[in-house]
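Model it.
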Amino acid sequence: MNCCAAISEIFRVRALWVLSFLLLPLFWGCSAPKENFTAELFELEGYSQDIPRISCFLTLKEPHGPDLRLEVASIEVLGDGLWLPLTRGPLTLDSATISSGQIYLGATSAPPGNYSRMRFMITKGELGAADGNYAVVTNDPFAVEVPISENMDLNGTDRRSLLISWDVESSIRNDNTLTPALVVNPPTAQLLVGLVYVSCPNIDTIFVVRADKNWVVDSFGLGGGPTYLAIDPNRSRQLLYVLASRERSIKVVDLANQKVVDSFRASPSDSPTFMTISPDGHRAYLLDEEGGFLDALDLTTGQSVARVHLDYRPSYAGYLEEQDLLAVSLSLSQDVLLLDPVTLSVKMTIPTGSNPQGLAASENFLLVAEERDSTVSMTDLENREDQSQLTVGFAPMRILATDDQVYVSNYRSGSLSVLVPGQLSVFQEIPDLGRPKEMVFNEFYRRVYITDEGRGAFSIVDANANQFLGRVSLGARPFGLAAIE
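Modeled.
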C-alpha cells in the first residue's frame, strides 16, 4: 500500500468511528437520559472488550463557594484531530449538589491514539443568590475547550479515567460574566494506602477509589470479566487477585504498576463463579455453582492442591479464621458446610433457611444470609445445635462483620440491616441503597462501601453513625470490592 492509500485508509477507519457515534442516538431514542445511568444502557452501546475506553468524573476545587448551575449540551474529547462524544445528552452541573462529592459525566469507547483536549458545550449558566433564587448569567450557547494537562495515549485494552476539577469561584468574574474554570487531569500514581478497588466486568475495568475523599482517582483495564477481588494479606507483595470469570482464571495484578504479573487457570471443566482467599494469602478457593465443585489453588504455583464435588449449587465461601475452617453455603440443599481448608473434607453440616448466600463469623456465631426467607440465621460455633433466626430486609445477600457491628445487604429492599454482634435484633436500617450486594469495610476511615447494581454505582456509609454519605456512579454495573488500608 502506497503512502496516499495508507493515509486514505486511516481517515476511512476514523470516519467510520465518528459515524458510529453519530448514529448511536437513533437507537437510544429521543427521550431524555436518566439521571442515574444503569449498566443496561451500556449494553446498548455495542461495547467491545478489545477497544480502549475513557470515563470522566468531576469534582469541585473547593466544596464551598457560589451556587452555580451549568446546562451542558455535550462533552467531547479530542483524539488525533477528531472529537468524540462522552455524554449521551444534556446534563446539568450544579455546584451546590456536587459539594464535596464526585459525579460521573460519561464515557466512550475510543480508538487507540493520543487524546489532548476536552470540549464543553454550555447552553445556560445560573448563579444562586442569598434568597435561594437563581439569576441567569448567560443564555447564549458557547463552547469551552480545556487541554488535558498531560496528553493521554490510549492503546489496546486501556481503561482510563479523566478527572475534571471545577473552580466555581473563578468561573464568575467581577462583572458577573461566566467563564467556566475547568482543569482536566489524567490519573496520577496513588500511594497504596486508603484505597478501594471496584470491578466492573461488563466493561473489563477496575476503578480505584480514594477512601478519604470517596472519589474515583484512577482506573485500569483487565480482560476476561473481572468479578471478585482480594488483596494479598502480605502487604509487601502489593498484589491484587482477580477472578476473571469469562476467562475462567485468576489474574494477579501488581498494584504498583497495575499490570498483570501472573495468571492461573481454573480446572478445565470448571466455570468459577466465586473466589475468596485464605488469610495467609497462600490459597485461593474457587466455587463453580453450576458444576458443584470447590477447588483450592496454590497462589504460588497456580496448581490445584485440592478439589471436591459438593453438588447442590455452592454459592458463597468464607474463611472462619478463628475456627480455621472454610464455610461454604449450598443454595440448593439449604446447608452450610464447614470444611478443613487444607483437605476440603467436610467437618460439619449446618442446616439453614431457604437459598443461603453470604456468611460471616462474629463473636463465635456463624451468620448466614437466607435470601428467600429474608432472614439471617445464627449458629453458635461451640454448641452447634444452638440456632436462631432474625428477620431482616428482603433478599439478604451478603454479611459483613466489623469489629463492633454486622451489616446485611438486602438486595430487594435496597437497604442495610445493622446488627449488634451476639444480639438477636436489628439495631438500625439504612435505606435507599438501590440494589446493594457486595460490601467491604475500610477500618481506618470506618466506612462501608457497597455495590449498587441497580444504579451502576457504589454507596458509602459512615460506620460510626451508620449514615449514608453518598453515592458515586461508575457508568457500569459494579461487582466486586477490595480495600487496602
